[in-house]
Amino acid sequence: MSFLDRFALWLGRMTAWCFAAIVLIMVYEVAARYGFNAPTTWAHEVSILLASIGFVIGGAFCMAERTHMRISLLVDRRPRLASFSEALGLVAGAIYLGGLSYAAWRMAEKALWRFSLSGAWDPERSGSTLNSPLPGYLKALLFVGCVLFLLLILRRMLPLHNRWRLR
């Protein structure tokens, strides 16, 4: 297992705690809203942030753990198709994530590198009552997650390339 795989597994396990934090935040929000008639302005937005972190890192985590969902009907009947099927999936994933990484970079760049007329940094904001800069940070996180996932796919393609080349 490479350093990249171990890093993605560690990062995935750390971000899994985001979902536990969401549960605690929602319990607090319900108690504050209905028990004390004092709803929060931040609970919904922070919950979305935490869930987004978990989902963005989840793809790379599943790739490192080799637990992505597979439809194995043909591979089970014809084991010779297994390496071809894996290679096809990796190539398709690399093409998709390459495009998604580029698009995420463009979105993050536009969301984060914004400045007001006075020259102050003014990243994209949510427009909610909290009006936090989380949308810009989430777009940057999407870029990081896509690149990590792409690197894991490219790393996984190396042994397949060597195996096909030797035939």
Explain briefly what this protein structure is:
The chain has 167 residues and is mostly helical.
Describe the structure.
The structure is a single chain. The chain is built from six helices and no strands. With 167 residues, it is mainly α. It has one domain. The two termini are 25 Å apart.
Mean of residue pLDDT?
88
Number of domains: 1
Give the overall shape: globular
**Strand percent estimate:** under 5%
Rg calculated over all Cα atoms: 21 Å
* Poorly predicted residue ranges: none
**What series of H and E elements makes up the topology?**
HHHHHH
Q: Helix count?
A: 6
Structural class: mainly alpha
Helix content: over 70%
First and last CA, distance: 25 Å
Specify the biggest β-sheet. none
Please tally the β strands and state the result.
Answer: 0
Subunit structure: The complex comprises the extracytoplasmic solute receptor protein and the two transmembrane proteins.
Family: Belongs to the TRAP transporter small permease family.
Transmembrane segments: 7-28, 48-66, 87-105, 137-158
Domain Tripartite ATP-independent periplasmic transporters DctQ component: 22-158
